[in-house]
Design a protein that fits this description.
It is a single chain. The protein is α/β, with parallel strands linked by helices and about 400 residues long. It has 2 domains: about 220 residues, Glycogen Phosphorylase B (Rossmann fold, 3-Layer(aba) Sandwich), CATH 3.40.50.2000; about 170 residues, Rossmann fold (3-Layer(aba) Sandwich). About 35% of the residues lie in helices and about 15% in strands. It is built from 15 helices and 15 strands. A 7-stranded parallel beta sheet has the order 3-2-1-4-5-8-9, with helices on both faces. Strands 12-11-10-13-14-15 form a 6-stranded parallel beta sheet, with helices on both faces. Strand 4, helix 4 and strand 5 form a beta-alpha-beta unit. The longest helix has 19 residues. The chain is globular. The chain starts with a strand and ends in an 8-residue tail after the last helix.
């Protein structure tokens, strides 16, 4: 098949989990013998080392200041070019309006990965006022949520609000054109269910998880003894629940068991967390590592005793879970959606409170459960085999998203 794939950035780029997942999909499709052309919102640092993968920069006639609006305009401007492909697959949910235009005006099969909630939520998190899971929507309710929601960036309230309102306009446009998208890929069952709740046809959504990066499949290195080294990997922002991490560590430090905490990642809450660590008198127990290149992450996971994720939103299928599983690092996270199926016996779930994280982690250490969970993680990792996932993707393409793949 000739496949046009819209990447979040470009193959080989460092960045979010979505960036790495998309690159693995691109490489997997090329390895399976498909002719892949990758459309890149950012400038590739170099030409692809793979001769079978073409790179094209999404630069068109639009100069719109809103990134998602501009990218939609640029996709539409390439309609004649995209007609030459068998498949157009976007990894960016805000592009649903323009991908639907491709499907409406050509015989090309169109697909969108629902990597997060940008296809139905202007904030991309389904958190109403950053406090609770949104259960219903209307334009008025969304505007109210956008205008009253805090923000973590340095761009300012007006900029952030205007950007989200423009996202909402794209969402409303896209929802009117969903019939022209042949299929959607959700990385987990709860993402599929959430989109179905907001009006998407569940029969057109295939559940296909992210693939594990083979570089992360390495032996675990820690010996699960004191001091127990806790790990967080991800952006330092509100919906990731990172403001709970230092209080969790502080409460654990009041016990007779020794703990440390490593934070890998950057974000708008970094300074707040550093102040928090000093105020809780645990600054010497917290290591702020900042950005760590992807190639160095396997060793970071493998050298820690427990991966802790206290997010307040329903993480679609964070790559951090798969990376922790692949390195044999036990997981402690919130209970939500289908997360129990994702983590399996390689972790423990909490109610999201600092107290329950405290009790769960302490119980894991006192009962010596971590080494057993580490062994279970290897079995769980098999669910994310890249070859299996690529086969599911091509099945989705062939069946136009009408057959559910699990």
């Amino acid at each position: 098949m000739r496949i046009a794939f819209v990447h979040p950035r470009f193959p080989s780029a460092e960045g979010t989990g979505a960036t790495h997942s998309a690159t693995q999909i691109v490489d997997g499709l090329a390895n399976a013998g498909h002719d892949v052309c990758v459309y890149c919102p950012d400038s590739p640092e170099s030409e692809s080392e793979r001769s079978e993968i073409q790179l094209r920069r999404l630069v068109g006639d639009s100069s719109h200041l809103h990134t998602n609006t501009r990218l939609n305009k640029e996709i539409v401007s390439r309609l004649d070019e995209l007609r030459k492909f068998d498949i157009v697959h976007s990894y960016l949910t805000p592009l649903i309006p323009s991908i639907a235009r491709v499907g409406e005006n050509s015989s090309v099969k169109t697909f969108v990965t629902l990597n997060a909630y940008g296809g139905t939520c202007a904030k991309n998190d389904l958190l109403y006022r950053d406090q609770k899971q949104c259960q219903s929507k209307s334009t008025l309710k969304c505007v109210n949520c956008i205008s009253r929601t805090g923000f973590d960036s340095d761009n300012g309230y007006l900029y952030e609000t205007a950007s989200k309102l423009l996202n909402l306009r794209l969402i409303n446009t896209g929802e009117q054109r969903l019939e022209h998208i042949d299929g959607f890929r959700a990385p987990s069952e709860h993402v599929r269910n959430n989109y179905a709740q907001f009006g998407y046809d569940a029969d057109k959504i295939a559940v296909i998880p992210h693939p594990v990066d083979k570089e992360f499949i390495i032996p675990h290195e820690s010996d699960f003894s004191e001091p127990y080294n806790l790990l967080y990997v991800g952006t330092l922002e509100t919906h990731k629940g990172v403001d709970k991490l230092v209080p969790i560590l502080s409460s654990l430090s009041q016990t007779d068991t020794e703990f440390t905490l490593t934070l890998v990642g950057t974000g708008p809450l970094e300074e707040k967390l550093q102040i928090q660590a000093r105020n809780h008198d645990v600054a010497e127990l917290v290591d702020f590592c900042g950005f760590v290149p992807n190639k160095e992450l396997p060793g970071v996971y493998a050298s820690h005793d427990c991966f802790v994720y206290p997010g307040i939103w329903e993480e679609p299928l964070g790559r951090v879970y798969i990376e922790a599983l692949a390195t044999g690092t036990p997981i402690v996270t919130n209970t939500y959606g289908s997360i129990s199926n994702i983590v399996g016996d390689a972790g423990r779930l909490t109610d999201g409170s600092i107290n329950d994280f405290h009790n769960t982690i302490l119980d894991m250490t006192s009962n010596n459960n971590m080494s057993v969970m580490s062994q279970k993680a290897s079995e769980q990792t098999k669910l994310y085999n890249v070859d299996h996932i690529i086969n599911n993707l091509t099945d989705m393409y062939d069946n136009l998203g009408s057959v559910q793949i699990n």
